[in-house]
Amino acid sequence: MAEDTLSVDVAICGAGPVGLALAALMARRGVEPKRIALVDAKALGQAISDPRSIALSWGSRQLLVDVGAWANVQPHATPIHQIHVSRRGHLGRSMMDRAEHDVDALGYVARYGDVVDALVRACDRAGVQALRPVRVTALVEDRDGVVLDLDDGRKLHAQVAVQAEGGVFGEQAERTRRRDYVQTAVIARVTCSQGIPHRAFERFTDEGPLALLPQDGPDGHQYALVWCVRPERAQQLLDLGEPEFLRQLGDAFGERLGTFTRASERAAFPLGLNADPRFSARTVAIGNAAQTLHPVAGQGLNLGLRDAAVLARLLARSLGHGIEQDGGIADALSRFAEERARDRGAIIRATDAMARVFANTGPLQPLFGLALAALDTVKPARMLLAELMMFGRR
To answer: Which residues lie below 8 Å from residue 201, measured CB to CB, with a gap of 6+?
Structure first.
């Protein structure tokens, strides 16, 4: 293809939920949709068919409502009314309940592909342009903007470039704040004999947390599983036949849901913290591209969506009809870093502590069980934690 150059205000590299949400929010806030470009290496069909389960907080639901995407997600999403948190082998547990917070649900479990599809529809309705499948091969920033070289031979000139494609921990370049948890998440969809509708479970074990998120239908028997274990143990679990895998899952989780009767095909990915809040005058990272977290408490995507909401507001203020307004892009990105520092820091510290502190066999583990019991009896503390999970640090 002959080389040509496209010109936009905002180039968003990565059209997952966070990048799509940023585009839709900017269009809603008045940025000319044709001046926004989504650049994605994946074909649209590949993204929409992704069956992975993701947890959406109540705050993320509100964001999807704002851009007109929630109506397409809701029919396939399972509400979480309660979250049961416990420590395997020790007394003490805590229960969070939607009734304490005057919300319809603490969160929702949805398929990644359904969320992408709904946000793609919102962006299409707004008129945002998408370049896919195409990769960015080089990025050069100067005083006047950013030039991105695309692998189809074209160049994309933008006032600002947003990196929204983070990848998984094991494939990322090392950032300034990094920790390898020496854990691997084994994921699958499982069926049990005695499900509890709309109740999610976070069960801390010696190797890492085991989460079961309710999904698929009103009978409460299907769950999305995220089982964090040592890498060698993860490979063993992947290699097991289904009956033995289900038996070992039952041993790790306990009998609260009866017995586990079926499991889908399993997959696994390494876990770590990899974060860097740095930005330049014309480039910024959001979501997984800025902070990859441990999946405990399901906060990664929700934190990224809050990144998108704040950045959309600030960029909309600094741009108008292709011309930078007072303060400009550099000022908007500086303000973004300042406004997001508390929320990002709080969630990183919380997930990092939960991933490390509970995943060992040290002498303090019985105290952590008692701490969960205390949390269950001290309502203000329990509500504060739940609100952090639903809305972030405000």
So the answer is: 83, 84, 85, 86, 210, 211, 212, 253, 256, 257
* Close Cβ partners of 323 (under 8 Å, ≥ 6 residues apart): none
**pTM of structure:** 0.92
* Cα-Cα-Cα-Cα dihedral sign, residues 114, 119, 125, 131: negative
Q: How far apart are CA 116 and CA 122, in angstroms?
A: 10
Ordered alpha helix ranges (H), 141-189: none
State how far the Cα of 314 lies from the Cα of 328, in Å rounded to an integer.
10
CA distance 307 to 243: 42
Give the position of tokens 């999946």: 295
Task: Tell me which H or E stretch contains 251.
Answer: helix 242-253
**3-state secondary structure (DSSP) of residue 15:** coil
What is the chain's pLDDT, residue by residue, as a tens digit (394 residues)? 345 889 999 999 999 999 999 999 999 999 999 999 999 999 999 989 999 999 999 999 999 999 999 999 999 999 999 999 988 766 667 888 999 888 999 999 999 999 999 999 999 999 999 999 999 999 999 988 999 999 999 999 999 999 999 888 888 889 999 999 999 999 999 999 999 999 999 998 889 999 999 997 656 699 999 999 999 999 999 999 999 999 999 999 999 999 999 999 999 999 999 999 889 999 999 999 999 999 998 999 999 999 999 999 999 999 864 455 556 899 999 999 999 999 999 999 999 988 887 766 555 555 555 555 555 666 666 666 667 766 776 6
